[in-house]
Specification:
alpha+beta; Jelly Rolls; 2 domains; five-stranded antiparallel beta sheet
Length: 206
């Protein structure tokens, strides 16, 4: 259930925005008005395939994941989003069309969410928000490009090392099966990669 936000609740989001552009007092008040505070329990759906993605989510605490289930029932992980990160199906959100993706909570997760209508209202009220969300969209596109290039040109071990570099805080926070789905490998092969890295870091004593 979404709850009315207050300046204290929106503090993490305001701090995040402040790293991109300084906001005026009026703009900070707009954030408190337009963003809603919400808790998703572990395994609760944020978005289900076939529904329209109606919200843009900023993670205050916890972890959400976005994935696709193919016709064979296999899970293909697209994104993990933790503290100070954003997640949504941009195509469904901006096109107002049914999503082919799922988003759910890996653990109890607190978000600040904004609807498409409220986001457009922010754009019209203050140009800073237009600039901020343009940067967010550009960064998401860059990350997607890098992920696609990595999938077609990197080995599984290279993808695993990249995951550790990008998500160091998730290596021991996520089930092995979810990390494997993100890397496009089996959990068994991931286990071998982990053992190989562990042995490299701690070679046997002679």
């Amino acid at each position: 259930m979404a709850h009315k936000t207050t300046p204290n609740v929106t503090a993490p989001l305001l701090d995040y925005f402040g790293t991109l552009l300084p906001l005026s007092r009026e703009e900070k008040e707009l954030v408190a008005q337009k963003f809603q505070h919400r808790l998703f329990r572990k395994r609760q759906y944020v978005l289900q395939e076939g529904d329209i993605c109606s919200q843009f989510y900023f993670i205050v605490k916890g972890c959400l994941r976005m994935y696709k289930i193919d016709h064979k029932g296999a899970m293909h992980m697209l994104q993990f989003a933790t503290e100070n990160n954003w997640i949504n199906d941009l195509g469904s959100f901006h096109g107002m069309k049914p999503s082919s993706l799922n988003i759910d909570a890996v653990e109890d997760t607190v978000v600040l969410q904004i609807s498409r209508d409220d986001l457009i209202a922010l754009y019209k009220s203050a140009t800073n928000f237009n600039r901020i969300f343009r940067v967010l969209t550009e960064e998401s596109y860059i990350i997607l490009q890098e992920r696609l290039l990595q999938n077609i040109s990197s080995t599984a071990e290279e993808r695993y090392l990249s995951f550790l570099d990008i998500y160091p805080h998730l290596a021991n926070r996520l089930p092995q099966v979810q990390i494997a789905a993100f890397l496009g490998i089996t959990p068994e092969f991931l286990s071998r990669l982990r053992n190989r890295k562990r042995n490299t870091r701690n070679p046997p004593k002679s």
